[in-house]
Amino acid sequence: MAKRTQHFYDDVYAVAQQIPYGRVTSYGAIARYLGLARSARMVGYAMTNSHSKEVPAHRVVNRKGLLTGKHHFEGTNLMQQLLENEGITVIANQIQDFGTVFWDPSEALGVRD
DNA sequence: ACCGTGACCTAGG
DNA sequence: TCCTAGGCCACGG
């Protein structure tokens, strides 16, 4: 496959939309799946523009399971409430049982090597 | 066209 | 195990 920059955002959104209900993933996991493991920042940057799309951005957190992007949501605890609404426990911006609710696209959709 | 910024990650001490 | 430093690439000013 060639040119991914143009499809980069769409790919990120596509993967994010495939995140199951009550599950979360990380920017790095999505980046790795897209073959951009070293450009995880771009994934987060792409999410900034996801407000125009139907993308569950609240289901995407960092590698530690910390809600680093909560400040980009309306209010102050919207992201946390959205997650808790799906049965995910969040304490101090930290997702509990992160390893359990974590959803790896590379593992679910298949790793491309 | 150059520079600074950013919802991150990995490696080394 | 915690902290620091470097790398990544796109976008706005």
Automatic annotation (TrEMBL):
GO biological process: DNA repair
CDD domains in the record: ATase
Superkingdom of origin organism: Bacteria
InterPro entries: ATL_DNA_repair (IPR052520), MethylDNA_cys_MeTrfase_DNA-bd (IPR014048), MethylDNA_cys_MeTrfase_DNAb (IPR036217), WH-like_DNA-bd_sf (IPR036388)
GO molecular function: catalytic activity
Keywords associated with the record: DNA damage
The keyword DNA damage is annotated on this UniProt entry: yes
UniProt protein name: MGMT family protein
Gene source species: Bizionia saleffrena
Lineage of source species: Bacteria, Pseudomonadati, Bacteroidota, Flavobacteriia, Flavobacteriales
